[in-house]
Specification:
Elements: E1 35-40, H1 48-63, E2 68-73, H2 81-90, E3 95-98, H3 100-106, H4 122-141, E4 145-160, H5 167-171, E5 174-177, H6 182-190, E6 194-197, H7 203-208, E7 214-217, H8 219-225, E8 233-235, E9 240-249, H9 250-259, H10 261-295, E10 299-301, H11 305-322, H12 329-345
Parallel strand pairs: 1-2, 1-3, 5-6, 5-7, 8-10
Antiparallel strand pairs: 3-9, 4-7, 4-8, 4-9
């Protein structure tokens, strides 16, 4: 689940390292009084994410009359998310785009949003984010960082060599997973699955060697790595949503406000508007990936309602042991209340 060309939101684990005293030692204000904000991204410039970030940079320049210039460091040149977070804290860079793993290193409770089978579709995810986004923002904004925009990148699905429609089908298989997906790995291990932790870039080798025969990942990532040539089955049931975010350090956010108080409002508005447009387009990217893989021989297997319920029953058995440790209890309960209402009322 590390850097890939068409899929951002599974990447290397982050280690939050301290360098807070360096904030005062670095700055990005130029002699002319304008501010350069360096934003790091692990994705190539010629990717949907890269083009979106360039669009955001253009809008920042426009709405501040060139006083705040967003400089995008594409293609992972600032290192993995661990390095990016360290650089963000030391003000070597001022902003970065993070996967759920990077965000959870800033606030561990965020991985609760990716608890298996808690949020099951786009409608539920939209309802959760609509009601909880302000609270989620506050979790970030109370510390060293400020959340500029969230980004939704579809859902994780189970891919396998042989068809999977029930938990028993998957429990017989060795499943590749990134070691950085600690919370999800814990949940699956507790449910009795055989998790083989691996660098995502090495999954192809493990598949060829027969060391693993299944994986859970976003379809766009599977297409990017061409893993569907070996994992020829996909279960249609969504496992968990994939959320990312654009984060800026508070030092720089304050500098922007000092330049002009309205700049913060304007930059937040244009960034979130573009992120919303990107969210809509990425759904098509994922859909196109599935269609492309299907034409190449991928079979999408849809469980019956009874088979799907078996998955939900399995996670319900282990959830009590995961709350308060793997997942934030309060946030889990709030999300559960929202999705239950959506399933009951459609709203």
């Amino acid at each position: 689940m590390r850097r890939i060309t068409v899929f951002l939101f599974f990447a290397a684990t982050l280690l939050v390292l301290g360098a807070g005293n360096l904030f005062a030692q670095r700055g990005t204000t130029t002699q002319s009084g304008s501010l350069e904000v360096k934003l790091a991204s692990p994705l190539p410039r010629e990717s949907p994410w890269g083009r979106t970030l360039d669009q955001i940079a253009s809008e920042w320049n426009r709405v501040t009359n060139g006083q705040v210039r967003l400089s995008i460091r594409h293609g992972g040149i600032e290192g993995n998310e661990s390095k990016m977070l360290l650089s963000l804290r030391s003000d070597t860079i001022q902003a970065a785009i993070f996967t759920p793993f990077g965000l959870s290193d800033i606030d561990k409770s965020i991985m609760t949003l990716s608890a298996p089978f808690l949020i099951r579709n786009e409608r539920e995810l939209n309802a959760v984010m609509q009601e909880l986004q302000t609270d989620l923002d506050n979790r970030f904004n109370r510390g060293e960082y400020f959340m500029l925009a969230w980004s939704k990148s579809g859902f994780v699905n189970i891919f396998s060599r042989d068809p999977v429609v029930t938990p028993a089908d998957l429990q017989r298989m060795r499943i590749a997973s990134n070691s950085e997906a600690a919370e999800m790995n814990t949940a699956f291990k507790t449910m009795g699955f055989q998790i083989i932790e691996s660098d995502w870039t090495d999954v192809g080798n493990k598949l060829n060697a027969g060391l693993v025969v299944a994986a859970y990942q976003n379809p766009a990532a599977v297409a990017a790595y061409q893993l569907h040539t070996m994992l020829k089955n996909m279960m249609s049931t969504n496992v968990a949503p994939v959320l990312g975010g654009i984060v800026i350090n508070q030092l720089t956010w304050k500098k922007i406000g000092d330049l002009n108080p309205r700049y913060q409002t304007e930059l937040l508005r244009v960034t979130r508007n573009i992120a919303t447009q990107f969210d809509a387009s990425i759904q098509k990217t994922v859909s196109d990936a599935v269609q492309t893989m299907t034409r190449a021989g991928l079979k999408v297997n849809t469980p019956t309602a009874a088979q799907e319920q078996l998955w939900y029953n399995e996670i319900d058995k282990v959830t009590p042991s995961l709350l308060g440790t793997t997942y934030d209890r309060d946030l889990y309960n709030r999300i559960s209340t929202i999705v239950t209402r959506v399933r009951t009322t459609g709203r």
